[in-house]
Amino acid sequence: MESTLDDFFAPGFVPADLGPLAGLLRARNVLNAFITLFRGGEDEVLVRLLVLREIGSRAAAPRWSPQELQAHFVYLNPVKLETVLARLRHNDLLVWDSDAQLYAVSEPGRIALAAVATLTQFSGEDAELGYLTAQVAAGQAVGEVSSESMQHLLARLNELYADFEAALESQSEFRIRSAREKLDSVWRWVEKGTEVMRELLADDTLDLPALNLAQSIAYAQSRMLRLTGVFQRRLSELAAQRVHLGESGLTSTNVADWLRSQSQDALATLADGLLSFHPEPLFATSDELLDIAEFEITGRVRTPTHVGELPTSSAAPLVGELEAERLLAAEALYEELAALASLGLPASLTDSVVADSYHETAYRLSLLALLGDADAALEQSVVADLVKLPLRLETDAEVELLDHPEVATITRGRLMPLRSE
To answer: Does position 384 have pLDDT exceeding 50, yes or no?
Structure first.
């Protein structure tokens, strides 16, 4: 026996008297449209959506005759098509005009189609924040701002900020880079939300609860906007701490990136013969291992695989020779940057960093990451003199292609003089 709405509530509670449920009951005719569309298996739902969207897409002639529908949906099984049309008509998503013998989309059906169109429009990586921002912006444009939509937007912004903070606190370069890429992907929606909140806060007719929500959203967005500089500073600090491997120009981060891009079979081949015993994690139980394995297999979002190769191994030079070469390279870079700072003009990163070899170019670029570092400035060395120069390094996400025998690409950026106040 099918349960009624009253069966879901404890004795003494009338469903119609509950505030959260009252709004849903008032919109029952629209909700029934979604129930009709999405009840059943995935294949049935897709076909219903296909048919209703095609019928509703003909704006110039919105009414269809049965013959036009049969001709338009010639790729569907005729019996299945009649079943779908009957279900949509029986549940009031389609209206049948018996006098004119024509089909038309009903008002609830048109509302459902518009909602589905908005949902399918935001199907990328930043779908959630984009959709929520669009809902608030649409309400602001027509003067009907939904507090519920604003609450969802605020909750999502707070969730993203918490994820970004966790990435920064982890001190993991890989997590920080992934978080910065996520911030870049949602950046346009944060900027759009800032514009919408600015207009809402200037609206004198906005009620107090909505005004409080708008202020909270504006604050959450401003916090997120400030994270761009934080990510860049933290990545610069981590870049300064990278360990350079001999004279190869490689760093520990390059090796870690390469190892993360390898398959399990390749890693097993590399580790073959390196372990004298097999590790036995006696501290882990089978339930915990199963839980972690389930997440790794089904839940974890993995970054795209990039195939790369490490250069052939070579003997590292003597420490004294390497330090002498680096000292000369640092002194040469200091002289060039000091001359640049005296002119007070910006210069491209390519002109300032690229040297005759890849190794020297990589070392000069690593020194530029220290510009403005307060800790490095305390030392008594040419590196300390270099970081005290009144210059600021700015980089972009793009790279420049170079006509160079050893350096193929370099991050696009510039050195900007610091203006004295």
So the answer is: yes
